[in-house]
Amino acid sequence: MSDRALRIGLLVESNEQLNQLRQLVGESGHQAACSLIASELDSLREGLDKLEVDAWLVTLAFDREEFQTFEELCDETSDQQQRLLDVEAWLAHLKVPVMIDDGLQSSPRHQEYQAWRRRILQKLEQLQGSINLAQLPQGAAQHIWVLAASTGGPEAVREFFQALDADLNIGFIYVQHMDSGYEQSLADIVNRHSHYPANPVIHGDVIHSGQTLIVANDHCVEFLANGTLMIKDEAWPGNYSPSIDQVFANVARSFGRRCGVIVFSGMGEDGAAGARMVHLQGGSVWVQSPHCCTIDSMPLATKATQVVSNEGTPSELATQLTNFIRRQDRNPSTV
Question: Mean pLDDT in the chain?
Answer without folding.
Answer: 85
